[in-house]
Amino acid sequence: MALISDGRFVEDGWRRLAEEEGLPKSGKIVVSLARLEHALAHLSDGVSLGVNAPNTTDPGALAAALPRLQLVEVVFPAFADGRGFSLARLIRRAGFKGELRASGRLLADQYAHALGCGFDTVEIPDDIAERQDESQWRAALAAHARTYQRGYVAAGSILDARRKAAAK
Amino acid sequence: MTAHDPALARPNAPTTTYRYDEFDAAFVKERVAEFREQVRRRLEGSLTEDEFRPFRLMNGLYLQLHAYMLRVAIPYGVLTARQMRRLADIADKYDRGYGHFTTRQNLQYNWPKLVDTPDILEALAEVEMHAIQTSGNCIRNVTADHFSGVAPDEIEDPRPTAEFLRQWSSAHPEFSFLPRKFKIAVTGAAHDRAAIMVHDIGLAIETNEAGETGYKVVVGGGLGRSPFVGKAIRDFVSRADLLAYLEAILRVYNRFGRRDNKYKARIKILVHEKGIDEVRQAVEAEFAAMDRSVFSYDPAEFERIAAFFAPPPYETLTAESEKLRAESVAHPAFGNFVDVNVSPHKVPGYAVVTVSLKPIGGIPGDATSQQMRVLADASERFGFGELRISHEQNVILPHVKQDELFDLWKTLDAAGLATANAGLVSDIISCPGLDYCALATARSIPVAQAISRRFSDLSRQRRIGKLGIKISGCINACGHHHVGAIGILGLEKKGQESYQITLGGDPTFSAAIGEIVGPGVTADQVPDVIEHIVDFYLAERQENETFIQTWRRVGHARFKDVLRREGEDGADI
Ligand code: HEM
Ligand code: SF4
């Protein structure tokens, strides 16, 4: 697995808790959606909690947990399955301020889309990381300097830039 | 300063098309550079073919039966003379000297090489064109009425809206990996020439009781394997809310559209399975929950775009040209052309000309580079340098002075472009079928050619009147056969090409999906069958009745009967 943040391959500080593994007293752990309720109920103070959410997750069901989560990891089962982009938007709309991570077979070519929809980081399997090295992810950051949409966070909007230019 | 400030005008550019500003230009250039990199990374191995596919599709590049195919967007069907010339130059330099205009206001090249495509895209970008989102599971090139801005029955020109949508949908971060392709069409007239009822979203510009202009929104129409007429999800969405409302629809579709089966992944299936009420509820809930202020509709921006589509500098002319009347009488072939291919214009003394790309026995929608240049020249000489592409695969010259129609006709005639059959039985919409398409189950071009030859007599065609024949080479329905008054679908049965006939399809506001009549027939039999249907219609029709009207009055059973009797004569229908 490789983790990309800001166009760089970085160390992952999070640990995915295996289903049979007990809750630790400290550290940064990611639990499955099924285990989220239990984890929240028994959370120790020293633990940062993240959840691994399938792209079909109902954001309404997550809403109550969001303020207590530091990471939400949205799964992309295939790079062409864009449901995770909409889910990210909804999680951000629900007020989530922590790290939003896209996890799965995403490609560098989708980096701008991911950032635009509110993701901070992207986690990809090694076989993709081998073919698409850091330089490609960094290049992808620059490839979509501006977009036509507003309200999508990453790049600046052409509409705003236009307004500004017209106001001059 | 207005959009028509001569100091700003590009050489050769008409006044009624959108002009890129620095941001649009940079955006398209960025997309070309990105695609060039993607091609390089594909060739070098960074991207597998599976990974590369959606990105090449998003840039209009298909892998077809014999070669790659490049589909170029002609946003809302509007072209300048300069752009048309560029299309011709690309056809010569990178293809085989022709291009194919499609039912979605695109142009397809059938023989480009992969390594050339970035250069082709660059050549397009130089004239403010692109192939962005002409394919792939994203919001496709937005289409609109090809008579925009000149039709007398227009409420509002749909092109500013379509351009707004083009920008909003381009490289949309959230909606570039949808369950399936997504097509939006806009009309602004009393008569629908954009087939909005058979699109994923159809927009009809309307005015509400308060006199405010907005949109009726129709969703879930579409053809293909399961054809559906769209349903109204909202009777009125204000202009300020349009983009937010569309985002709400797309978000619901992106989350809940079926992804388990590509044939069920269109929004029409969602609407069909859940029902329009449940889909409406979900969309309205999303619309209510979203922060609409971020769309922060900017009337000034709408006005900026609309200004590009302001009327060109028309002259003040008398409504009816004496010269035209005299020339029509003196030259019957020209008179026929005027009667059939010339439509009324909202400005006195002008006319809208449909140039048929359906010569008798020709390939529907094909134009040679030479013909493209003739059309480009003609548009400059006779109409502010502007052209349109219709979903009927024809070219429109939208602002021709009635006084100059005769000269235009002579020019067109010399280039083989004066076939007087617009809207008649030989004005056939046809997909490429087995001749080019990897998905085809039967040929469609030769069938179109055979029908066209059978009805080669133009005066007979005129006696028959307006009648749309539409042919698809497979169930995907690129030739819109479901909405043809007469539809023909090519299938494969026991190793043989077989053609299924449907009747009564209608692509307008009164949309209907055609009904199958009788078992399939062989390619050889198709012209006979069509002829029998047409003869039956002629025998049955009451005064001035169109084919559809007769069909609706007389009914399925009797039309079917004709074909059955035909079978009893040994024709094996
Ligand atoms: C030659 C390569 C082509 C391929 C591989 C192709 C592929 C397809 C496929 C797979 C569908 C079915 C979509 C669905 O499931 O709903 C479809 C539908 C369609 N295609 Fe094509 N097509 C091609 C050419 C064309 C051409 C030349 C045109 C225009 C003349 C066209 C316009 C359309 C239209 C209008 C539909 C109907 C979509 C709807 O409303 O449901 N396609 N095409
Ligand atoms: S209808 Fe079928 S054969 Fe014709 S172009 Fe479409 S996919 Fe190909």
From TrEMBL, chain A:
<dbReference type="InterPro" id="IPR008318">
    <property type="entry name" value="UCP030820"/>
</dbReference>
<dbReference type="Pfam" id="PF06073">
    <property type="entry name" value="DUF934"/>
</dbReference>
<protein>
    <submittedName>
        <fullName>DUF934 domain-containing protein</fullName>
    </submittedName>
</protein>
From TrEMBL, chain B:
<keyword id="KW-0560">Oxidoreductase</keyword>
<dbReference type="Pfam" id="PF01077">
    <property type="entry name" value="NIR_SIR"/>
</dbReference>
<keyword id="KW-0004">4Fe-4S</keyword>
<dbReference type="Pfam" id="PF03460">
    <property type="entry name" value="NIR_SIR_ferr"/>
</dbReference>
<feature type="domain" description="Nitrite/sulphite reductase 4Fe-4S">
    <location>
        <begin position="426"/>
        <end position="564"/>
    </location>
</feature>
<protein>
    <submittedName>
        <fullName>Nitrite/sulfite reductase</fullName>
    </submittedName>
</protein>
<feature type="domain" description="Nitrite/Sulfite reductase ferredoxin-like">
    <location>
        <begin position="363"/>
        <end position="414"/>
    </location>
</feature>
<dbReference type="GO" id="GO:0020037">
    <property type="term" value="F:heme binding"/>
</dbReference>
<feature type="domain" description="Nitrite/Sulfite reductase ferredoxin-like">
    <location>
        <begin position="68"/>
        <end position="127"/>
    </location>
</feature>
<dbReference type="InterPro" id="IPR005117">
    <property type="entry name" value="NiRdtase/SiRdtase_haem-b_fer"/>
</dbReference>
<dbReference type="InterPro" id="IPR051329">
    <property type="entry name" value="NIR_SIR_4Fe-4S"/>
</dbReference>
<keyword id="KW-0479">Metal-binding</keyword>
<dbReference type="InterPro" id="IPR045854">
    <property type="entry name" value="NO2/SO3_Rdtase_4Fe4S_sf"/>
</dbReference>
<keyword id="KW-0411">Iron-sulfur</keyword>
<dbReference type="InterPro" id="IPR006067">
    <property type="entry name" value="NO2/SO3_Rdtase_4Fe4S_dom"/>
</dbReference>
<keyword id="KW-0349">Heme</keyword>
<feature type="domain" description="Nitrite/sulphite reductase 4Fe-4S">
    <location>
        <begin position="135"/>
        <end position="287"/>
    </location>
</feature>
<dbReference type="GO" id="GO:0016491">
    <property type="term" value="F:oxidoreductase activity"/>
</dbReference>
<keyword id="KW-0408">Iron</keyword>
<dbReference type="GO" id="GO:0051539">
    <property type="term" value="F:4 iron, 4 sulfur cluster binding"/>
</dbReference>
<dbReference type="InterPro" id="IPR036136">
    <property type="entry name" value="Nit/Sulf_reduc_fer-like_dom_sf"/>
</dbReference>
<dbReference type="GO" id="GO:0046872">
    <property type="term" value="F:metal ion binding"/>
</dbReference>
